Amino acid sequence: MKNKANWWLILGLLIVTALVGVFIPTGLAEQDYTNLNAGDTAWMLTATGLVLLMTPGLAFFYGGMIQSRNIISTMLQSYIAMGIVSVLWVVVGFSIAFGDSVGPEGFGLFGNPITYFMFRGVGGGTNPDLAPTFPFAVFAMFQLKFAIITPALITGSFAGRVRFRAYMLFMCLFIIFVYAPLAHWTWHPNGFLRNWGVLDFAGGTVVHMSAGFAALAGAIFLGRRKDANKEFKPANIPYILLGAGMLWFGWFGFNAGSALAANSVAASALVNTNTASAAAMLTWIFYDAAQGKKPSAVGAAIGLVVGLVAITPAAGFVSVGASIFIGVVAAMISNYAITLRTKSKLDDTLDVFPAHGMGGITGMILTAVFANEVGLIHGEITTFLYHLLALVIVGVFTFGGSLLLYKVTDLIVPMRISPHGEKIGLDLSQHEESYNFVYAEEQH
Rounded to two decimals, what is the model's pTM? Predict the structure, then answer.
Protein backbone atom coordinates (compact mmCIF):
# COMPACT_ATOMS: atom_id res chain seq x y z
CA MET A 1 0.00 0.00 0.00
CA LYS A 2 2.87 2.36 0.81
CA ASN A 3 4.36 1.82 -2.65
CA LYS A 4 1.02 2.61 -4.28
CA ALA A 5 0.75 5.83 -2.25
CA ASN A 6 4.20 6.90 -3.37
CA TRP A 7 3.34 6.36 -7.02
CA TRP A 8 0.05 8.25 -6.63
CA LEU A 9 1.99 11.11 -5.06
CA ILE A 10 4.42 11.22 -8.00
CA LEU A 11 1.54 11.11 -10.49
CA GLY A 12 -0.16 13.92 -8.57
CA LEU A 13 2.95 16.08 -8.79
CA LEU A 14 3.10 15.55 -12.54
CA ILE A 15 -0.58 16.50 -12.92
CA VAL A 16 -0.08 19.64 -10.81
CA THR A 17 2.94 20.56 -12.93
CA ALA A 18 0.85 20.15 -16.08
CA LEU A 19 -1.89 22.39 -14.68
CA VAL A 20 0.60 25.06 -13.61
CA GLY A 21 2.12 25.06 -17.08
CA VAL A 22 -1.25 25.86 -18.66
CA PHE A 23 -1.47 29.18 -16.81
CA ILE A 24 2.13 30.37 -17.22
CA PRO A 25 2.32 33.22 -19.77
CA THR A 26 4.55 32.36 -22.71
CA GLY A 27 6.53 35.60 -22.70
CA LEU A 28 7.08 35.32 -26.47
CA ALA A 29 5.91 38.79 -27.44
CA GLU A 30 9.43 40.24 -27.51
CA GLN A 31 11.03 37.44 -29.51
CA ASP A 32 13.53 38.53 -32.18
CA TYR A 33 13.11 36.70 -35.49
CA THR A 34 15.24 38.97 -37.67
CA ASN A 35 18.55 37.08 -37.35
CA LEU A 36 17.29 33.55 -38.02
CA ASN A 37 19.55 31.61 -40.37
CA ALA A 38 17.93 28.68 -42.18
CA GLY A 39 21.15 26.69 -42.46
CA ASP A 40 22.04 27.02 -38.79
CA THR A 41 18.48 26.22 -37.78
CA ALA A 42 18.35 23.09 -39.93
CA TRP A 43 21.70 21.87 -38.61
CA MET A 44 20.81 22.46 -34.97
CA LEU A 45 17.49 20.66 -35.37
CA THR A 46 19.40 17.73 -36.85
CA ALA A 47 22.10 17.82 -34.18
CA THR A 48 19.45 17.82 -31.45
CA GLY A 49 17.94 14.64 -32.87
CA LEU A 50 21.37 13.03 -33.16
CA VAL A 51 22.19 13.73 -29.51
CA LEU A 52 18.89 12.24 -28.34
CA LEU A 53 19.73 9.05 -30.25
CA MET A 54 22.77 8.64 -28.02
CA THR A 55 20.66 7.79 -24.97
CA PRO A 56 18.97 4.74 -26.57
CA GLY A 57 22.45 3.89 -27.85
CA LEU A 58 23.77 4.02 -24.31
CA ALA A 59 20.87 1.80 -23.21
CA PHE A 60 21.92 -0.91 -25.64
CA PHE A 61 25.61 -0.39 -24.80
CA TYR A 62 25.03 -0.86 -21.07
CA GLY A 63 22.26 -3.43 -21.50
CA GLY A 64 24.50 -5.72 -23.50
CA MET A 65 27.21 -5.60 -20.85
CA ILE A 66 25.14 -6.57 -17.82
CA GLN A 67 23.78 -9.98 -16.77
CA SER A 68 20.66 -11.11 -18.61
CA ARG A 69 18.52 -10.78 -15.46
CA ASN A 70 19.22 -7.03 -15.37
CA ILE A 71 19.10 -6.07 -19.06
CA ILE A 72 15.63 -4.49 -19.11
CA SER A 73 16.13 -2.54 -15.90
CA THR A 74 19.53 -1.25 -17.03
CA MET A 75 18.13 -0.13 -20.37
CA LEU A 76 15.04 1.41 -18.78
CA GLN A 77 17.26 3.50 -16.50
CA SER A 78 18.49 5.26 -19.65
CA TYR A 79 15.08 5.54 -21.29
CA ILE A 80 13.36 6.93 -18.19
CA ALA A 81 15.89 9.77 -18.18
CA MET A 82 14.40 10.96 -21.47
CA GLY A 83 11.06 11.39 -19.71
CA ILE A 84 12.06 12.74 -16.31
CA VAL A 85 14.80 15.13 -17.41
CA SER A 86 12.72 16.45 -20.32
CA VAL A 87 9.93 17.60 -18.00
CA LEU A 88 12.30 18.81 -15.29
CA TRP A 89 14.30 20.78 -17.86
CA VAL A 90 11.22 22.64 -19.06
CA VAL A 91 10.04 23.40 -15.54
CA VAL A 92 13.26 24.63 -13.96
CA GLY A 93 16.41 22.87 -15.19
CA PHE A 94 17.06 25.10 -18.20
CA SER A 95 16.63 28.19 -16.04
CA ILE A 96 19.21 27.03 -13.50
CA ALA A 97 21.66 26.20 -16.28
CA PHE A 98 21.13 29.20 -18.59
CA GLY A 99 18.87 31.67 -16.77
CA ASP A 100 19.89 35.10 -15.47
CA SER A 101 23.14 34.53 -13.65
CA VAL A 102 23.19 34.62 -9.86
CA GLY A 103 26.61 35.71 -8.61
CA PRO A 104 29.11 38.53 -9.12
CA GLU A 105 29.94 39.79 -12.59
CA GLY A 106 32.13 37.20 -14.27
CA PHE A 107 31.60 34.69 -11.46
CA GLY A 108 28.14 33.26 -12.04
CA LEU A 109 27.20 30.31 -9.85
CA PHE A 110 23.78 29.29 -11.16
CA GLY A 111 20.85 30.65 -13.12
CA ASN A 112 17.73 32.18 -11.63
CA PRO A 113 15.12 29.36 -11.56
CA ILE A 114 12.40 31.86 -12.50
CA THR A 115 14.04 33.19 -15.67
CA TYR A 116 12.70 30.53 -18.04
CA PHE A 117 10.30 28.78 -15.65
CA MET A 118 8.05 26.49 -17.72
CA PHE A 119 10.00 27.71 -20.79
CA ARG A 120 8.62 31.21 -20.46
CA GLY A 121 10.33 33.26 -23.16
CA VAL A 122 11.79 30.20 -24.88
CA GLY A 123 10.41 30.18 -28.41
CA GLY A 124 11.20 30.53 -32.09
CA GLY A 125 13.17 33.75 -31.84
CA THR A 126 16.91 34.11 -31.35
CA ASN A 127 18.93 34.87 -28.23
CA PRO A 128 21.96 37.16 -28.73
CA ASP A 129 24.15 35.35 -26.20
CA LEU A 130 23.15 31.70 -26.56
CA ALA A 131 21.42 31.23 -29.93
CA PRO A 132 22.17 34.24 -32.15
CA THR A 133 21.16 32.67 -35.49
CA PHE A 134 18.66 29.92 -34.70
CA PRO A 135 15.58 29.58 -32.46
CA PHE A 136 16.23 29.79 -28.73
CA ALA A 137 13.85 26.86 -28.25
CA VAL A 138 16.14 24.69 -30.38
CA PHE A 139 19.11 25.69 -28.21
CA ALA A 140 17.13 24.73 -25.11
CA MET A 141 16.23 21.36 -26.64
CA PHE A 142 19.81 20.76 -27.78
CA GLN A 143 21.09 21.37 -24.27
CA LEU A 144 18.33 19.15 -22.86
CA LYS A 145 19.76 16.14 -24.70
CA PHE A 146 23.08 16.63 -22.89
CA ALA A 147 21.25 16.79 -19.57
CA ILE A 148 19.36 13.58 -20.39
CA ILE A 149 22.38 11.41 -21.08
CA THR A 150 24.42 12.52 -18.05
CA PRO A 151 22.45 10.70 -15.30
CA ALA A 152 21.98 7.80 -17.72
CA LEU A 153 25.76 7.47 -17.91
CA ILE A 154 25.96 7.22 -14.11
CA THR A 155 23.73 4.14 -13.97
CA GLY A 156 26.45 1.81 -15.20
CA SER A 157 28.32 2.17 -11.91
CA PHE A 158 25.51 0.73 -9.75
CA ALA A 159 23.83 -1.49 -12.34
CA GLY A 160 22.09 -4.48 -10.82
CA ARG A 161 21.58 -3.15 -7.31
CA VAL A 162 19.63 0.12 -7.29
CA ARG A 163 15.94 0.63 -6.52
CA PHE A 164 14.15 2.19 -9.50
CA ARG A 165 12.19 4.79 -7.49
CA ALA A 166 15.33 5.87 -5.68
CA TYR A 167 17.19 6.27 -8.96
CA MET A 168 14.45 8.51 -10.35
CA LEU A 169 14.59 10.73 -7.26
CA PHE A 170 18.39 10.91 -7.38
CA MET A 171 18.22 11.87 -11.05
CA CYS A 172 16.00 14.85 -10.28
CA LEU A 173 18.27 16.04 -7.48
CA PHE A 174 21.39 15.53 -9.59
CA ILE A 175 20.07 17.62 -12.50
CA ILE A 176 18.97 20.47 -10.23
CA PHE A 177 21.90 20.63 -7.82
CA VAL A 178 24.89 19.28 -9.78
CA TYR A 179 24.41 19.21 -13.54
CA ALA A 180 22.60 22.51 -14.11
CA PRO A 181 24.95 24.62 -11.93
CA LEU A 182 27.98 23.00 -13.58
CA ALA A 183 26.55 23.80 -17.02
CA HIS A 184 26.10 27.39 -15.86
CA TRP A 185 29.71 27.64 -14.69
CA THR A 186 31.01 26.29 -17.99
CA TRP A 187 28.72 27.54 -20.76
CA HIS A 188 26.82 30.60 -19.51
CA PRO A 189 28.45 33.92 -20.52
CA ASN A 190 28.75 34.82 -16.82
CA GLY A 191 29.87 31.37 -15.66
CA PHE A 192 33.12 31.58 -13.73
CA LEU A 193 34.83 28.63 -15.43
CA ARG A 194 34.03 30.12 -18.82
CA ASN A 195 35.37 33.49 -17.75
CA TRP A 196 38.56 31.85 -16.49
CA GLY A 197 39.08 30.58 -20.02
CA VAL A 198 38.31 26.94 -19.26
CA LEU A 199 37.53 25.22 -22.57
CA ASP A 200 34.81 22.59 -22.80
CA PHE A 201 33.56 22.48 -26.36
CA ALA A 202 30.82 19.88 -25.96
CA GLY A 203 30.68 18.51 -22.41
CA GLY A 204 33.87 16.73 -21.39
CA THR A 205 33.60 18.50 -18.04
CA VAL A 206 29.85 19.08 -17.76
CA VAL A 207 28.75 15.64 -18.95
CA HIS A 208 31.53 13.07 -18.71
CA MET A 209 33.54 14.23 -15.73
CA SER A 210 30.40 14.94 -13.73
CA ALA A 211 28.94 11.54 -14.63
CA GLY A 212 32.26 9.83 -13.92
CA PHE A 213 32.70 11.31 -10.44
CA ALA A 214 29.01 10.79 -9.62
CA ALA A 215 29.41 7.17 -10.73
CA LEU A 216 32.43 6.76 -8.48
CA ALA A 217 30.45 8.17 -5.55
CA GLY A 218 27.54 5.87 -6.37
CA ALA A 219 29.69 2.75 -6.52
CA ILE A 220 31.19 3.62 -3.13
CA PHE A 221 27.85 4.51 -1.53
CA LEU A 222 25.88 1.47 -2.72
CA GLY A 223 28.71 -0.93 -2.04
CA ARG A 224 29.62 -4.15 -3.78
CA ARG A 225 27.17 -6.54 -5.37
CA LYS A 226 26.60 -9.83 -3.60
CA ASP A 227 28.21 -11.70 -6.47
CA ALA A 228 30.84 -9.06 -7.28
CA ASN A 229 33.62 -11.62 -6.95
CA LYS A 230 32.10 -13.78 -9.66
CA GLU A 231 33.16 -12.94 -13.19
CA PHE A 232 30.20 -12.62 -15.53
CA LYS A 233 30.10 -12.51 -19.29
CA PRO A 234 28.24 -9.77 -21.16
CA ALA A 235 24.69 -10.87 -21.85
CA ASN A 236 24.53 -9.66 -25.45
CA ILE A 237 27.63 -8.54 -27.33
CA PRO A 238 25.66 -7.54 -30.48
CA TYR A 239 23.74 -5.11 -28.21
CA ILE A 240 27.07 -3.60 -27.15
CA LEU A 241 28.15 -3.13 -30.76
CA LEU A 242 24.76 -1.71 -31.73
CA GLY A 243 24.87 0.73 -28.83
CA ALA A 244 28.44 1.79 -29.60
CA GLY A 245 27.50 2.41 -33.23
CA MET A 246 24.50 4.53 -32.22
CA LEU A 247 26.71 6.49 -29.82
CA TRP A 248 29.32 7.13 -32.52
CA PHE A 249 26.63 8.27 -34.96
CA GLY A 250 24.88 10.49 -32.42
CA TRP A 251 28.14 11.95 -31.19
CA PHE A 252 28.49 13.91 -34.43
CA GLY A 253 25.52 15.96 -33.23
CA PHE A 254 26.94 16.08 -29.71
CA ASN A 255 30.26 17.59 -30.81
CA ALA A 256 29.71 19.19 -34.21
CA GLY A 257 26.39 20.59 -33.00
CA SER A 258 28.20 22.38 -30.19
CA ALA A 259 29.58 24.81 -32.77
CA LEU A 260 26.00 26.19 -32.63
CA ALA A 261 26.17 26.93 -36.35
CA ALA A 262 26.61 25.20 -39.69
CA ASN A 263 30.16 26.42 -40.18
CA SER A 264 33.82 25.44 -40.40
CA VAL A 265 34.09 24.86 -36.65
CA ALA A 266 31.32 22.26 -36.87
CA ALA A 267 33.18 20.58 -39.72
CA SER A 268 36.42 20.53 -37.73
CA ALA A 269 34.63 19.10 -34.69
CA LEU A 270 33.09 16.35 -36.83
CA VAL A 271 36.46 15.38 -38.32
CA ASN A 272 38.16 15.37 -34.91
CA THR A 273 35.35 13.34 -33.36
CA ASN A 274 35.53 10.58 -35.93
CA THR A 275 39.33 10.49 -35.98
CA ALA A 276 39.80 10.36 -32.20
CA SER A 277 37.22 7.59 -31.88
CA ALA A 278 38.86 5.54 -34.62
CA ALA A 279 42.32 6.01 -33.10
CA ALA A 280 41.10 5.02 -29.64
CA MET A 281 39.34 1.90 -30.90
CA LEU A 282 42.47 0.71 -32.70
CA THR A 283 44.66 1.55 -29.71
CA TRP A 284 42.40 -0.43 -27.37
CA ILE A 285 42.55 -3.52 -29.59
CA PHE A 286 46.33 -3.27 -30.14
CA TYR A 287 46.99 -2.57 -26.45
CA ASP A 288 45.00 -5.65 -25.45
CA ALA A 289 46.77 -7.76 -28.06
CA ALA A 290 50.17 -6.53 -26.88
CA GLN A 291 49.29 -7.86 -23.41
CA GLY A 292 48.46 -11.30 -24.80
CA LYS A 293 44.70 -10.85 -25.03
CA LYS A 294 42.69 -11.60 -28.13
CA PRO A 295 41.13 -8.65 -29.97
CA SER A 296 37.51 -8.44 -28.84
CA ALA A 297 34.32 -6.80 -29.97
CA VAL A 298 33.69 -5.53 -26.44
CA GLY A 299 37.15 -3.97 -26.31
CA ALA A 300 36.65 -2.28 -29.67
CA ALA A 301 33.30 -0.86 -28.54
CA ILE A 302 34.67 0.45 -25.24
CA GLY A 303 37.71 1.91 -26.99
CA LEU A 304 35.74 3.88 -29.54
CA VAL A 305 33.47 5.30 -26.82
CA VAL A 306 36.50 6.36 -24.73
CA GLY A 307 37.85 8.18 -27.79
CA LEU A 308 34.54 9.97 -28.21
CA VAL A 309 34.56 10.98 -24.55
CA ALA A 310 38.13 12.28 -24.64
CA ILE A 311 37.74 14.40 -27.77
CA THR A 312 34.51 15.99 -26.57
CA PRO A 313 36.02 18.95 -24.67
CA ALA A 314 38.59 19.53 -27.42
CA ALA A 315 36.61 18.85 -30.60
CA GLY A 316 36.40 22.42 -31.88
CA PHE A 317 39.69 23.65 -30.47
CA VAL A 318 42.38 21.28 -31.79
CA SER A 319 43.87 20.00 -35.04
CA VAL A 320 43.09 16.58 -36.49
CA GLY A 321 46.62 15.44 -35.62
CA ALA A 322 46.01 16.31 -31.99
CA SER A 323 42.73 14.37 -32.09
CA ILE A 324 44.64 11.20 -32.97
CA PHE A 325 47.00 11.77 -30.04
CA ILE A 326 44.08 12.40 -27.68
CA GLY A 327 42.33 9.20 -28.79
CA VAL A 328 45.46 7.07 -28.41
CA VAL A 329 46.42 8.41 -24.98
CA ALA A 330 42.87 8.27 -23.61
CA ALA A 331 42.43 4.65 -24.70
CA MET A 332 45.62 3.54 -22.98
CA ILE A 333 44.83 5.45 -19.77
CA SER A 334 41.26 4.14 -19.55
CA ASN A 335 42.32 0.60 -20.38
CA TYR A 336 44.87 0.68 -17.58
CA ALA A 337 42.35 2.32 -15.23
CA ILE A 338 39.92 -0.56 -15.82
CA THR A 339 42.69 -3.03 -15.05
CA LEU A 340 43.38 -1.25 -11.76
CA ARG A 341 39.68 -1.14 -10.93
CA THR A 342 39.32 -4.90 -11.39
CA LYS A 343 42.09 -5.43 -8.85
CA SER A 344 40.49 -3.12 -6.29
CA LYS A 345 37.47 -3.46 -4.00
CA LEU A 346 35.56 -0.80 -5.95
CA ASP A 347 32.50 -2.28 -7.67
CA ASP A 348 31.92 0.12 -10.55
CA THR A 349 29.88 -2.46 -12.44
CA LEU A 350 30.36 -1.22 -16.00
CA ASP A 351 33.52 0.85 -15.39
CA VAL A 352 31.92 4.24 -15.76
CA PHE A 353 34.65 6.13 -13.90
CA PRO A 354 37.60 4.44 -15.67
CA ALA A 355 35.97 5.03 -19.06
CA HIS A 356 33.95 8.25 -18.83
CA GLY A 357 35.57 9.83 -15.80
CA MET A 358 39.17 9.18 -16.81
CA GLY A 359 38.34 9.81 -20.47
CA GLY A 360 36.85 13.18 -19.58
CA ILE A 361 39.80 14.09 -17.35
CA THR A 362 42.29 13.11 -20.06
CA GLY A 363 40.40 15.10 -22.66
CA MET A 364 40.15 18.14 -20.43
CA ILE A 365 43.88 18.21 -19.71
CA LEU A 366 44.89 17.55 -23.32
CA THR A 367 42.51 20.26 -24.52
CA ALA A 368 44.61 22.73 -22.55
CA VAL A 369 47.74 21.25 -24.11
CA PHE A 370 46.67 21.36 -27.78
CA ALA A 371 44.03 24.12 -27.99
CA ASN A 372 44.62 26.46 -30.91
CA GLU A 373 46.55 29.59 -29.86
CA VAL A 374 46.08 29.16 -26.09
CA GLY A 375 47.34 25.60 -25.56
CA LEU A 376 50.49 24.61 -23.70
CA ILE A 377 52.02 23.43 -26.96
CA HIS A 378 51.82 27.03 -28.22
CA GLY A 379 53.75 28.36 -25.25
CA GLU A 380 50.72 29.48 -23.23
CA ILE A 381 50.44 28.24 -19.65
CA THR A 382 47.42 30.18 -18.31
CA THR A 383 44.75 27.97 -19.87
CA PHE A 384 46.54 24.82 -18.71
CA LEU A 385 46.73 26.03 -15.10
CA TYR A 386 43.07 27.05 -15.08
CA HIS A 387 42.15 23.62 -16.44
CA LEU A 388 44.02 21.95 -13.60
CA LEU A 389 42.21 24.19 -11.10
CA ALA A 390 38.87 23.47 -12.75
CA LEU A 391 39.62 19.75 -12.62
CA VAL A 392 39.97 19.94 -8.84
CA ILE A 393 36.88 22.12 -8.39
CA VAL A 394 34.67 20.02 -10.66
CA GLY A 395 35.94 16.76 -9.15
CA VAL A 396 35.27 17.86 -5.58
CA PHE A 397 31.90 19.42 -6.43
CA THR A 398 30.53 16.52 -8.47
CA PHE A 399 31.87 13.75 -6.24
CA GLY A 400 30.99 15.43 -2.94
CA GLY A 401 27.67 16.78 -4.19
CA SER A 402 26.62 13.44 -5.64
CA LEU A 403 27.61 11.58 -2.48
CA LEU A 404 25.45 13.97 -0.45
CA LEU A 405 22.54 13.50 -2.86
CA TYR A 406 22.85 9.70 -2.60
CA LYS A 407 22.55 10.03 1.18
CA VAL A 408 19.55 12.37 0.93
CA THR A 409 17.85 10.05 -1.55
CA ASP A 410 18.52 7.05 0.66
CA LEU A 411 16.81 8.79 3.60
CA ILE A 412 13.67 9.24 1.50
CA VAL A 413 13.72 6.00 -0.53
CA PRO A 414 16.24 3.25 0.27
CA MET A 415 18.58 3.08 -2.72
CA ARG A 416 19.91 -0.45 -2.38
CA ILE A 417 17.65 -3.24 -3.60
CA SER A 418 16.91 -6.11 -1.22
CA PRO A 419 19.25 -9.15 -1.32
CA HIS A 420 16.43 -11.25 -2.81
CA GLY A 421 15.66 -8.61 -5.42
CA GLU A 422 19.32 -8.46 -6.38
CA LYS A 423 19.53 -12.25 -6.61
CA ILE A 424 16.59 -12.69 -8.97
CA GLY A 425 17.50 -9.54 -10.89
CA LEU A 426 16.05 -6.08 -11.22
CA ASP A 427 14.02 -6.99 -14.29
CA LEU A 428 11.76 -9.21 -12.20
CA SER A 429 12.01 -7.54 -8.79
CA GLN A 430 11.50 -3.95 -10.03
CA HIS A 431 9.50 -4.35 -13.24
CA GLU A 432 8.08 -7.90 -13.41
CA GLU A 433 9.56 -8.26 -16.86
CA SER A 434 12.36 -10.44 -18.15
CA TYR A 435 14.69 -10.63 -21.12
CA ASN A 436 15.30 -14.29 -20.29
CA PHE A 437 11.85 -15.89 -20.12
CA VAL A 438 13.17 -19.31 -19.12
CA TYR A 439 15.01 -17.75 -16.16
CA ALA A 440 11.87 -15.80 -15.22
CA GLU A 441 9.72 -18.94 -15.15
CA GLU A 442 12.30 -20.70 -12.97
CA GLN A 443 12.26 -17.84 -10.46
CA HIS A 444 8.49 -17.89 -10.26
Answer: 0.94
